[in-house]
Automatic annotation (TrEMBL):
The lineage of its organism: Archaea, Methanobacteriati, Methanobacteriota, Stenosarchaea group, Halobacteria. GO terms for molecular function: serine O-acetyltransferase activity. Keywords: Acyltransferase, Amino-acid biosynthesis, Cysteine biosynthesis, Cytoplasm, Repeat, Transferase. It is an enzyme of class 2 (transferase). It catalyses: L-serine + acetyl-CoA = O-acetyl-L-serine + CoA. This is Serine acetyltransferase.
Length: 184
């Protein structure tokens, strides 16, 4: 767990140029706090302590403004920048090294107990207030523009924007990594 926390802090410092130091990231980054609460809730969910998991998830939503269902599957180094208003549904799957901004929804479009939330593959970037709806896949290193509504699969290395989201030809990719500061 400590290794994951340190990894998460390094990721935040690499992906957020406003991060001024380790202490600041540890103490004030609500997106990281939400992911840490999720990990506890998810472990309880996996051990069939469902009510306890949902209570922790609920407390996390109250404290961070981020709602992550404890049954969701989340990989390593998810960074939720600014956090507030993010919703990640029960059957969502998120790969490693995903960057997500505030107001993002990974929502379902079915009332049945089935895979009904998006899959976001490794390295994807999801812009502010984007809505990804249904059992769709956002491919590896794809980018979803701010405010987009995504209703169908997005191929790897593709940038989409709009309502409904469509590929943008020749879109420039935005570099979201900055060097980590070694002075912390």
């Amino acid at each position: 767990m400590l290794r994951q926390i340190l990894d998460d802090v390094r990721t935040a410092k690499a992906k957020d140029p406003a991060a001024d130091g380790t202490a600041e990231v540890l103490l004030t980054y609500s997106g990281l706090h939400a992911v840490w609460f999720y990990r506890i809730a998810h472990a309880l969910w996996e051990r069939n302590y469902r009510l306890a998991a949902r209570i922790i998830s609920h407390i996390a939503r109250f404290l961070t403004g981020v709602e992550i269902h404890p049954a969701a599957e989340i990989g390593e180094r998810l960074f939720i920048d600014h956090g507030m208003g993010v919703v990640i549904g029960e059957t969502a799957e998120i790969g490693d090294d995903v960057l997500m901004y505030h107001g993002v929804t990974l929502g379902g479009n079915s009332m049945r107990r089935e895979k009904r939330h998006p899959t976001v593959e490794d390295g994807a970037k999801i812009g502010v207030r984007a809505s990804l709806i249904g059992d769709i896949t956002i491919g590896e290193n794809a980018t979803v523009g701010a405010g987009a509504t995504v209703l169908s699969d997005v191929p790897a290395e593709t940038t989409v924007a709009g309502v409904p989201a469509e590929p943008i030809d020749g879109a420039a990719t935005v570099e979201t990594r900055v060097p980590c500061r070694d002075d912390d």
